[in-house]
C-alpha cells in the first residue's frame, strides 16, 4: 500500500512535467513566430529591393530619354542657327543688290548688261581653257560685244576697243592648233605604207668587181642601222610604231607637248628601222620634224584682257 507522501510526490512530478511540456510548447510557438517574422521581413526586404531596382531602372530610362531629347534639341538648335545664318546672309546679299540697283550712279538696266557681259566673257575664257572651243568662244565674244554696244556710258569705250582687238586676234587664229596637228598626224600615218621596203637595185656594171663576182653567193649588209627584213620582226615593229602613234594622239588630246614630241621621236626611230634610206623616207622624216614643231595650245597674249579690264573697271567704280 502506497503511502500518502509518495503519492503527493508523484503528483508534484506530474505537475512539473506538465509545466515543462507547456513551457516547451510555448517556447516552440515563440520560436516559430520569430522564424515566420524573420522570413516575412526577408521577403519584404526582397520586395522592397525589387521595387527599388525597378525605380532605379525607370529613372535610368528617363535619364536616357532626357539625354536623347536634349541631343535632338541641340541638333535642332544647330540646324536652326545655321538656317538663321543663311537667311541673314541671303538678306545681306539681297540688301546689297537692292542698294546697288537703287544707286542713282548705277542704272539697273546697265548693271544687268554689264553682269551679262562679264558672264559671257567668263564663259568664253572657260570654253577656251577647258575645251578649246574656238567657235563657242567666238559666239560668246560676239554676244558680249553686242551687249556692250548697248551701254551708252563713255567709261566703257576703252573696254569696247579692247574687246574688238581680242575678237580680231581670236578670228585670226583660224582652226585649233590641236586639231590641225591631229589632222596632219593622221595624214602622215596614212602615207607610211607607200614607203619602199627595199632600196633601188644597183646596176650590175656599177658594182665593184668583188660584188659582181660574189654577189650571188654572199650578201653583205651593214650591221649598224640595219633595216628589219624578217616578216615577224617587221610585224612587231609596225605594231610598236602604231602604238607610238596612239600615244601621240592621246598626248594631243591632253595637249601634252612633251609626251607628244617624245612619241614622235620614237616613231622616227622606227622609221629608220623599218624602211631603208631613200628620198621618200627622208621626206617623211622632214614631215615628222615639222609635226613635232607644231604648237598644241593657243598663244594669244590678248586673250582675257577684256575680262580683266571689265573687272578692274567695276572694282574702281
Written overview of the protein:
Residues 35-69 form a coiled coil. It comes from Luteimonas galliterrae. Its EC number is 2.1.1.107. Keywords: Coiled coil, Methyltransferase, Transferase. With 317 residues, the chain is mainly alpha-helical. It has three domains: 20-95; 107-174 and 301-316; 177-191 and 225-297. 76% of the residues lie in helices and 0% in strands. The chain has ten helices and no strands. α2 packs antiparallel against α3, α5 (177-190) runs antiparallel to α9 (279-292) and α8 (257-274) packs antiparallel against α9. It is elongated, with a radius of gyration of 53 Å. It starts with a helix and ends with a helix. The model has no long low-confidence stretch (mean pLDDT 80).
